[in-house]
């Protein structure tokens, strides 16, 4: 029998504390039916605490993860404008981001720069690997409250800029980022979605977007630090990787980097200060193979630690919302 989150708050049966993700224990027999019956409760818990963990479903493959994900969302969306590739899977699912396993994925929200972003993420852990790979979350409301005002105010006023380069050597392939590699279709997509773009002499594409750094939660109205200012900035890159990329492509040829909303270059100290606040609010999720993590993509940022071995996590991007333009 599953723990009930609301009852657990009253009698202490659910594993909840001020610095932990709410945790439901179920059985494999409960399955998607239990998730559908408790979807409102689970989504509410995710809004309140950023994410909720469901253990005991015994998820072993992408088909089972898809059924569980659909029980918790009203619609699954395709990924466009992702910052790194994923492998598309049947039933609207994706692999986790194809990011080097020895490199951390720092705190970020999914698709904050895209024309549509997921309100919810459903992460299903099919295999943990040999070690590492911890997923953590950080409350976007608490992060905003903790950031120094002199950092927040210019971003809140002017937004932030994301510059990306796509070519055959760096960046996500056009077909992955835009669903097509037809230059005219890509140009049309950029123009329709407020993305400044230029085609380079070598056939590559460079884009620039100005985006809001703070957004209101669609359900509670709370202000959230909702962006990828730090994660996609060159100063968050592994220094050795940055040195190689700058040496090969120059400062303007990085696959992505970020700027202040007025186009001014971001200094290392500002980026490090944002990452330090994220670190102070980081809460690890102690998940196991077969677990499901429902994450509110606006209320919480998420990260992934380096790992070894054959780790397998599949992802559903759920309940899309249109990006609010600055």
Structure description:
It holds the Pfam family TauD. The protein has a 6-stranded mixed sheet. Residues 1-18 have low confidence and may be disordered. It has 2 domains: 5-139 and 283-322, 4-Layer Sandwich (Double-stranded beta-helix), CATH 3.60.130; 142-277, Double-stranded beta-helix. It contains 10 helices and 18 strands. The chain is 28% helix and 28% strand. By secondary structure, the protein is of the alpha+beta class.
Shape: globular
Query: Mean pLDDT score, rounded?
Result: 91
> CATH class of the largest domain, please?
Alpha Beta
Largest sheet: 6 strands, mixed
Approximate strand percentage: 25-35%
So, CATH architecture of the largest domain? 4-Layer Sandwich
Question: Can you identify the CATH superfamily of the largest domain?
Answer: Clavaminate synthase-like
Number of strands: 18
Strand order of the largest sheet: 1-2-15-5-18-3
Oligomer: single chain
């Amino acid at each position: 029998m599953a723990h009930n989150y609301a009852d657990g708050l009253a009698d202490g049966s659910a594993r909840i504390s001020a610095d932990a993700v709410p945790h439901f224990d179920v059985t494999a027999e409960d399955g998607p039916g239990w998730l559908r019956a408790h979807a409102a409760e689970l989504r509410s818990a995710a809004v309140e605490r950023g994410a909720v963990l469901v253990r005991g479903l015994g998820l072993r493959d992408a088909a089972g993860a898809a059924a569980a994900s659909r029980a918790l969302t009203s619609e699954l969306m395709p990924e466009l404008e992702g910052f790194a590739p994923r492998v598309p899977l049947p039933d609207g699912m994706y692999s986790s981001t194809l990011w080097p396993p020895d490199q951390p994925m720092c705190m970020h929200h999914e698709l904050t720069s895209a024309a549509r972003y997921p309100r919810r993420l459903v992460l299903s852990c099919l295999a943990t690997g040999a070690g590492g790979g911890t997923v953590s979350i950080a409350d976007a409301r608490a992060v905003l409250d903790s950031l120094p005002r002199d950092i927040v105010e210019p971003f809140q006023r002017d937004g932030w800029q994301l510059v990306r380069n796509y070519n055959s050597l760096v960046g996500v392939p056009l077909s992955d980022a835009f669903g097509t590699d037809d230059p005219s279709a890509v140009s049309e997509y950029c123009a329709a979605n407020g993305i400044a773009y230029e085609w380079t002499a070598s056939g590559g594409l460079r884009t620039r977007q100005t985006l809001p750094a703070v957004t209101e939660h669609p359900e509670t109205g709370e202000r959230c630090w909702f962006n990828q200012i730090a994660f996609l900035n060159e100063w968050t890159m592994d220094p050795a990787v940055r040195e190689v990329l700058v040496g090969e492509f120059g400062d303007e040829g990085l696959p992505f980097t970020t700027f202040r909303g007025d186009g001014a270059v971001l200094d290392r100290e500002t980026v490090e200060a944002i990452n330090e606040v994220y670190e102070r609010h980081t809460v690890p999720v102690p998940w196991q193979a077969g677990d499901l993590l429902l994450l509110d993509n606006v209320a919480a940022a998420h990260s992934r630690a380096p790992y070894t071995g054959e780790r397998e996590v599949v992802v559903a991007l759920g309940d899309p919302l249109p990006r609010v333009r600055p």
